[in-house]
Amino acid sequence: MHPIIFFSRMDFSQSNLFGYIEDLQELTIIERPVRRSLKTPEEIERLTVDEELSDIERAVYLLSSGQDIQGTSVVANLPALMRQNPAETLRRVLPKIREVLHVAGVEMQLTAAVSFLTVLQEESVSIHTYSHSFLHIILQNLEHRDAGVSNAWLETLLAVIEALPKETIRHEILNPLVSKAQLSQTLQSRLVTCKIMGKLANKFEAHIIKREILPLVKSLCQDVEYEVRTCMCRQLEHIAKGIGTELTKTVVLPELVELARDEGSSVRLAAFETLVNLLDMFDADDRSQTVLPLVKSFCEKSFKADESILVSLSFHLGKLCNGLYGIFTPEQHLRFLEFYKKLSTLGLQQENGHNDNQLQLQTLEQEKKYISVRKNCAYNFPAMIVFVDPKNFHLELYSIFFCLCHDPEVPVRYTMAITFYEVAKLLNSGVYTIHKELVTLLQDESLEVLDALVGHLPEILELMTNGGENSGSESKLLSIPDLIPALTTAEQRAATSLKWRTHEKLLQKYACLPHIIPSDQIYYRFLHRMLTIILTNNVLPVQKAAARTLCVYLRYNRKQEQRHEVIQKLIEQLGQGKSYWNRLRFLDTCEFIMELFSKSFFCKYFFLPVLELTHDPVANVRMKLCYLLPKVKSTLKIPTDKHLLQQLELCIRKLLCQEKDKDVLTIVKRTVLELDRMEISVDAFQKRFYENDLLDQEKERQEHLLLEMEQLEKEKQQNEGRSTNINDKMFEKKRKFVYLFTCCLCKEDKKSKLVRSQSFSTQALHPKYSNIDKCPNKSSATGYTSSVSGMGKSCMLSFSGK
């Protein structure tokens, strides 16, 4: 055996590598006998079960004489046994489980709690049978010494309470709670009682709650243990909603006031959070005379107390300020606003340089809480805009907005990116004041922040473009010179990262840019970048996202010369590219072209380049083309595109006769059948294609309008300096017309996509098409041609008739 020696630098030469392998092999040989000796023959014999036993008998046997792991397996399988044979399971298996649970370990207890809940949810038995068989077992294990087990059984019981009838709840659960709430009971028992009380409040009428539940609630609110008081305080919200406004005012509110002054900080915190959640149930007098003084006292003492109170306070501050808005005096309004501002910058002015290690550790823990406070302030920022009124944003809150967007911690900036859209909506016509922060977040060093912002980027940019609801509808973001560099930087940073989903999402959202940025800027700064991504990126979803966005940019491009250049590059670099992967992406791009452009546009520029791929040397490309051919055929109109139909028929013939790949040939035959069933639309409208043809006509009209727009712009430039009032009016009319169609395009595209998906739904094959062979003779090769030609003639006749 070679000795194993650890060097400072490992030598991976061939001779040494074989030495290491031999060492590893010898180590595995030494280990094998140890693994074999894990189970003795006696243990294996003990674990062996007769295969002829039924599921019920096997379960009873394993619960009676098996090991814990086998018993746990039976308990986990209880829902399946209940589905198969509920009567026998209840009669034989469940009593055994009940016996075993008395001495069972934690794992079996947790498994049983989950299985009992599953049986309830699956409704394997009636609720009466369930309460008779399972409820007592749940209640027996509710006070297990292990807190995790006790909580698991409690969750099961709370779910059962939702389904149980009132009488059963009253006799089996409510009545025993009177003794369980006594001080003589264990702490765990009283905590469980508190949580059950909160659940029962929604099951009974108010008078029953007042008579039987509220006395127990008061007793638990005054318990000697702060854990019980805290737990009961958090249940008061559920109890208040169960008893109504009047009883809440007379019973719950006094208890909350007393708990808010408790000596325990956790009790005071629970009372504060419950008060905030119940604000809607209190009238103006209760809010001004009772709630507001408590809240003011709580806020004043928060900085002197534990920072965890600040975390909760900062989270609820937005809801609190707006809930008490109507009763604030101007002085109180200003005081709460200043308190929010103070929380928003908490910890940023602190100096953390301490030499003592213990102080450094305390400072780190404190800094984490300060970060949570600022994050909560960012979460509440839209609510605070409502609190101060959007008109006063720049004066009162802009400085805080700036600080939060430039916060040194990622979670804070991430939260601001999420809320940015809400802020923009609230500001409306004043949205221009936050454009610099938009650029800042787009250039953020964290991709998490960028990902959060991009979710609503189209809506944000649209708001900034329109300047709110009351501004002009056609202005571009010329007032933000840094926007385009920020957008390009964001895309490049996402592209160089490993988070391809963020990159994909970004590219999808960038499809909105033609509504925001002028056509020339799109062409020079974004369109060619999309083509580069398609050609060089290695992630398929990213390539597809770039391809679709490129097609959108092409759709809105206003210069015919630029459009022709892009189309030529798509055909040469993708459709005729050396890499088969690029040719596959060309077919993906053609799908997007068919979705976004009119049929005539696709037929004019892409129909023949697509058909050329029938001769592609790679089988995967030919196969993908075959899948695409039905969509390609749907773009044809007779008689205008009769020559293209003939080219399609010729390509199908060649594929049937010359295809050598077995898989491709199978797809070709299937595609032929689908093509043979398809009907070709005619130039005139038909009822069956009316909606589809109408959408296509709108797209074609937009494409013509873009051409006319370009021509008018050229004429205007040529006639510059002359009196061209008539041309100016015509130009303005066309420009507005183009823009109106442009705004509606997104809705039309979605509708068009739905219509196409319905029209291409697969139908059952006719028996006469079940035997298609690989071009055995001339007549079989022309079968598709004859059927399509016949269909074309019938379409032409109907067209001429119209």
Automatic annotation (TrEMBL):
GO MF, one term, reads: protein phosphatase regulator activity
Which segments carry the HEAT repeats? Answer: 213-250, 252-290
Where is it chiefly localized? cytoplasm
Keyword annotations of the record: Coiled coil, Cytoplasm, Phosphoprotein, Repeat
- Taxonomically, the superkingdom here is Eukaryota
Q: Give the record's GO CC terms.
A: cytosol; protein serine/threonine phosphatase complex
**Compartments in which it is found:** Cytoplasm
Keyword Phosphoprotein present in the record's keywords: the answer is yes
Query: Which regions form coiled coils?
Result: 692-729
What is this protein's function per UniProt? Putative regulatory subunit of serine/threonine-protein phosphatase 4.
Binding partners and assembly: Serine/threonine-protein phosphatase 4 (PP4) occurs in different assemblies of the catalytic and one or more regulatory subunits. Component of the PP4 complex PPP4C-PPP4R4.
The protein in question is named Serine/threonine-protein phosphatase 4 regulatory subunit 4
Question: Which organism's genome codes for this protein?
Answer: Buteo japonicus
